[in-house]
Amino acid sequence: MRQAHADPVSSPTVDVLRRALHIKGSSLVMTLFGDAIAMRAQPIWLSSLIRLASPFGLSSRLVRTSVYRLVADDWLLAAREGRRSHYRLTPNGALRVRHAQRRIYGDDVRADTAPGSTLLMISADLKASARQQLQRELVWNGYGELADGVYAHTRADRSCLQDILRSNRACDHVCVMQADLDSTLSKRPLHTLRASRCCPGRLEQAWRRFIERFSPLQNACSTLTDHEAFLVRILLVHEFRRILQRQPTLTPDQHRDEALTHQARRLFEELYQHLLQPSERYLDHELASCPALTPARTSAPWSTDKRSRAPALGQSSLH
After folding, report:
1. What residues does each domain of the chain span?
2. Is 173 within 8 Å of 124 (Cβ atoms)?
3. Distance from C-alpha of 290 to C-alpha of 297, rounded to nearest angstrom
4. pTM score above 0.90
5. Which of 66, 71, 133, 196 could pair with 25 as two cysteines, CB 3.0-4.6 Å apart?
6. Cα–Cα distance measured from residue 166 to residue 96, given in angstroms and rounded to the nearest whole number
7. In a structure prediction context, what are the per-residue pLDDT tens digits for the chain, which is 319 residues long?
8. Of the candidates 149, 181, 161, which has an alpha carbon nearest to the alpha carbon of residue 251?
9. For the domain 107-192, what is the CATH code?
10. Chain-centre distance of CA 286, in angstroms?
11. In sequence order, what DSSP letters do the residues of the chain get, joined into one string?
C-alpha cells in the first residue's frame, strides 16, 4: 500500500463513494470520534478535527457547529489551552460509543443477555426532550418501536439498558418486562409488529446498496494511499453504523434481510482489516500534535479470538 501523508486528491473510486453516501456533520464527527479518536483515548485539537473532516466535504464552520451541538448534547467535553481548544468524549459520550461499538464490531451477543424478549414502556410523564433522547438511544441499541412509547428487543443486554436508563435519568419513567410469545394465543412474532410501523424493504435496499458500493474496494485496497485508506475506513464505518442503527433486534433468525446483514458484515470486517494499518499511519501523522498521543492500533476492535473465527462471526445473528 502506498504511503502519503499529504492531503492528495482522492482516487476516483473514493470520490464516487464519498459523493454517493448520505453524510451529516454531527453524525460524521461522531464516527470520527467513535472509530478513530476514542480508541486512542486522547483529546483532539479542533483544528485537527477540522482537517480530518475536510476531505468529507465538511467546512470548518460546519465542524464547529457540529462540535458545539455535541457538547450541548453531552457527547463531547471541551478544554482550552491558550487560544486553542481540544475535545474528548464525556463519560456519557464514551458510554454511548462503547454501546455502539458492540453492535458495529460484532460483539452484540453478551453473557448478560436477558432471556426472552425485553419490553420497555415509557411513561407519559417523561419530558419531551428527555423522551426523545431516550428513544434515540434505544433505537441506536437495537430496540424496535412496536407502538408509541413501547419498545422491544429479543437479545437485550441488561447492563447496556441499565446504562441507557441511568444516563438519561429515566429509571423512574419506564416499565421494563421480560416476555415470551404465547403461541397458543398469538401466532404473530414481534418483528411483524415492527414491520407494520416501518418499511422493511427500505432496510433491505440499504444493505444492498452498501454491498454494491463497497464491494469494488475489495480489489482496490492495495492501491490506496494511507490518506485514502483513512477516508474509506471512515466512510465504511459511518455507512455501516447508519444502516445498523435502523435495524432493530427483534428476532434471532426471521429477518427477511438477515442474509444481507451477514454478507454486509463479512464485507465490513474484511475491508476494515485491510484498511486499518495504513489508516492508522495516516492518523499517527495527523494527530502527532494532539495532547497525550497514544500508539496506533494494529488490530481491529474485535478481539484476536473473534478474528480467528471470522466466518462464524460473520454468520452470527445481529437482529
Report:
1. 107-192
2. no
3. 16
4. no
5. 66
6. 12
7. 555 444 444 567 778 888 888 788 888 999 998 898 887 777 899 999 999 999 888 899 999 999 999 999 889 999 988 888 889 999 989 888 888 888 888 755 444 455 578 889 999 899 998 899 899 889 888 888 888 889 888 888 888 899 999 988 999 999 999 887 776 776 666 656 655 555 667 888 999 999 999 998 988 888 899 999 999 999 999 999 999 888 877 664 444 557 788 899 999 999 999 999 999 999 988 887 666 544 555 555 654 343 332 322 232 222 2
8. 181
9. 3.30.70
10. 23
11. -----S-PPPPHHHHHHHHHS---HHHHHHHIIIIIIGGGT--EEHHHHHHHHGGGT--HHHHHHHHHHHHHTTSEEEEEETTEEEEEE-HHHHHHHHHHHHHHTT----TTBPSSEEEEEE-TTS-HHHHHHHHHHHHHTTPEEEETTEEEESS-BHHHHHHHHHHTT-GGGEEEEEE---TTT----HHHHHHTTS-HHHHHHHHHHHHHHHGGGGGTGGG--HHHHHHHHHHHHHHHHHHHTTS----SS--TTHHHHHHHHHHHHHHHHHHHHHHHHHHHHHTTTSTT--PPP-S-SS-HHHHHTHHHHHHS---
Angle in degrees, 0-180, between the axes of helices 128-140 and 91-104, rounded to the nearest 10? 30
Residue 255 φ/ψ, nearest 5 degrees: -70, 135
